Amino acid sequence: MIRPTVARIDLSALKLNYRSIVEHLARESRQRPPGVIAVVKANAYGHGAGQVARALEDAGADLLACADIEEGAALRAAGVGAEILVFGALSVSDLDGLFDCRLTPTISTPGAARAVQSVAAKYKKRLHYHLKIDTGMNRLGFRFDNVKRTLPELLASASWSSLPTRGWTNRIRRAVCSTSSSTRSRGTRLSTTSGTLSPRPAPMTRSSS
Fold first, then answer.
1. Where are the domains of the chain?
2. CA–CA separation, 59 vs 17, rounded Å?
3. Is-cis flag, bond preceding 199, omega within 30?
4. Cα–Cα distance between 75 and 52 in angstroms, integer?
């Protein structure tokens, strides 16, 4: 016999959790506290992307993140007005969605950069983006030790000015490893690499639990 399972999402508790994280970062930071990206990919991990995103926005979140352009479009359709960052690899067949839905892409390859440049030129618009740096996880992103050889080609492009950099991002495996030498090393690599561009964008670290 299959018993029904019901998950009740307390949006008030969700808002409280978000605000508690922001307040904790403010207390722990000696300088300007880091911003928080509220990740709502995969239907907000099964919690309901639309309602969760709107609740987080109401709690003060000004930057949400999803996996792909389709998820970003669904968030806009649900009434989300905050900036939406697309974490995943871009589908070059549907880059119009970045402009139609006001999404911020993550660029992880030279090919993706050129494709987004082309679409930005078509729309005659500037599009902020995040640059994905691989600092050791060996998944998506520009290799941290190859950025200086890779980026000059992109930065020399006449259309690169249509893509101002919003931030740099990398990924660590577990949030609880924030004090490990491996995690510190990756943070140093990201911070050092971010000095390659001028003006210097803000480095961001994404952790998975």
1. 11-17+33-86, 88-209
2. 9
3. yes
4. 10
Q: Do 73 and 97 contact (CB within 8 A), yes or no?
A: yes
Residues shown for the chain: 209
In eight-state DSSP terms, residue 32 is: S
Element (H, E) at 68: none
pTM of the model: 0.77
With a CB cutoff of 8 Å and minimum separation 6, the contacts of 48 are: 9
Give the tens place of pLDDT for each residue, 130-179: 878 777 666 677 777 776 676 665 656 544 455 555 554 544 444 444 55
159 φψ region: left (φ > 0), alpha (ψ -120 to 50), beta (else): alpha
Give the number of other CB atoms < 10 A from CB of residue 90: 25
Any idea which architecture 88-209 has in CATH?
Alpha-Beta Barrel (3.20)
From residue 135, alpha-carbon distances to 29, 86, 102, 191 in Å are 24, 19, 28, 10
